Amino acid sequence: MKTCINGATTMPYPLEKDVETAGKVGFDGIEICREKLDQYLHKYRKEDLRDLIQSFRLGVSAICPFTGYVWCPENEFTKKLAETERYLKISTYIGCESLLVCAEESKSKRRKDVIETHVVRLKRLAQLAEDYGVKIELEWFSDLTDAIEIVNLVNHESLGMMIDTFHWYRGDGDITHIDLIPKDKLFLVHINDCENLPRERLTDENRLYCGLGVIPLVEILKRIKQKNYNGYLSVEIFRKEYWSKDPLTISLESLKTLVEVMEKATVRG
Prior knowledge:
Elements: E1 2-6, H1 15-25, E2 29-33, H2 34-43, H3 46-55, E3 59-66, H4 74-94, E4 98-102, H5 111-130, E5 135-139, H6 144-154, E6 159-164, H7 165-170, H8 175-179, E7 186-191, E8 193-194, E9 207-208, H9 217-225, E10 232-235, H10 240-243, H11 247-264
Parallel strand pairs: 1-2, 1-10, 2-3, 3-4, 4-5, 5-6, 6-7, 7-10
Antiparallel strand pairs: 8-9
């Protein structure tokens, strides 16, 4: 598996600094925050970004996040597809593998309707992404089996799943659900740890570096390894305590703690 860092982990810093520090400390890849990308392209060209990424020999796992596709009216959805196409073109140009799309779960709607509506809209998004050789990965926030059902129903090679270890732990937390993910549908893993608090009290700010909390990361990685997953493990942490440090220190600490967990799970390759 490959090491990666998400731009949220270094949130206060610009994209160019994310690329530079990730490359200097030895990450295999980066995951680009969409907002940082927009800010970068106000000042620079996409050619500059491609050259910068290539100069550090980094891969790009994804651009994230994207949302708002599921419950909007058809005319708004059509506009969002056109807007997304711009990012698909950029992805193709800089060598980005995928766009991360957030689930739009709703407690006010029946599970059947939530799944069916996601299937319809995500299938059309996947069809668009296919034209650019880019994948769409679905991030789910509660019961993982719902996301698995959606991906299976869409049944499109350009649509798969992303697992976030924090959302899995705070969501259903059932380790056996990871085994249910089809081997060819796991596109990315967000890896992070969290404080020992009741799950209902956990927020993104309770995330920790890998191996410093209570999430069974080693067991998760061993199960993912059984799927022959060889993609990115992207460190995504929203923690103000970490953000107060300089970006090089954040990147160094993120990589060190990630590698320690990977070695325990024997997935460092």
